[in-house]
Amino acid sequence: MISNNILSFAKSVLCELLEPGCIAIDATVGNGYDTVFLSETAGADGHVFGFDIQEEAVKQTEQRLNEECRPQNWTIFHSGHENMLELIPAEFHGRIDVVMFNLGFLPGSDKTVITKSATTLVAIEASLGLLTRGGLLCVAIYAGHPGGDEEDRAVREYCTALDYHAYRVIQSEMINKPGYPIRMLFVTKL
Ligand code: SAH
């Protein structure tokens, strides 16, 4: 797969890891493209849990899933990802293979509705608890919009401090992009 953006790069990494039957979380469903990718990969025996605080994003994602993905192997919550521990049924705790975050605002929508470091960090911590051993957390971080720089620093600081004996963290970055950087963190739970 040609990686012309950081999410397609992340998906090429995920394709190596994910198998039919996997359990995934899309923590920021947005326009639903990543949710569809995860649903297709998980297949009939897997499941995808999705979160977004914007009704428009939830509706668009559900519509896309209904059009493109069969059978219905998804549950989309119109709720903040900081509530994932309460909303994802206990039987899936410790069984999640992958969690994706695509931070920032939804392109083409209200640019003032953004992910915020306080809730993002709660959700990242919850995600790490929900992952199975060998599971992967991916976080796409955008520093260019108001509030983005602060969130970028907070998320990287949090992940830098994770115990090396429990997690491995790899950062990739689009280093020739004009303007602000786009980063992707990959956190593997050992
Ligand atoms: N910046 C990316 C797209 C990010 S979409 C890009 O350029 O491609 C981010 C999504 O996160 C938006 O749809 C927004 O509604 C959602 N969001 C914001 N806060 C959230 C929260 N606390 N929980 C879940 N989703 C949230």
Describe this structure in words.
This protein has a 7-stranded mixed sheet, with helices on both faces. It is of the alpha/beta class and 190 residues long. Helix 5 packs parallel to helix 6. Helix content is 35%, strand content 25%. The relative contact order is 0.15. The protein is built from 6 helices and 7 strands; from the N terminus they run αβαβαβαβαβαββ. The two termini are 27 Å apart. It is globular and about 40 Å long. Bound molecules: S-adenosyl-L-homocysteine.
Q: Judging from the principal axes of the Cα atoms, what is the shape?
A: globular
- What is the ordering of alpha helices and beta strands? HEHEHEHEHEHEE
The overall pLDDT, averaged over residues, is 95
Intertermini distance: 27 Å
Number of strands: 7
The largest sheet, given as strand count, sense and whether it forms a barrel, is:
7 strands, mixed
Topology:
Blueprint: H1 6-17, E1 23-26, H2 33-42, E2 47-51, H3 55-68, E3 74-77, H4 84-87, E4 96-102, H5 117-130, E5 131-142, H6 148-160, E6 167-173, E7 182-189
Parallel strand pairs: 1-2, 1-4, 2-3, 4-5
Antiparallel strand pairs: 5-7, 6-7
Helix pairs in contact: 2-3, 5-6
Bound molecules: S-adenosyl-L-homocysteine.
Protein traits:
single chain; 7 strands; 25% strand; 6 helices; alpha/beta; binds S-adenosyl-L-homocysteine; 190 residues
Question: What is the compact description of this entry?
Answer:
The chain is an alpha/beta fold and 190 residues long. Helix content is 35%, strand content 25%. The protein has one domain (6-13, 21-32, 45-189): Vaccinia Virus protein VP39 (Rossmann fold, 3-Layer(aba) Sandwich).
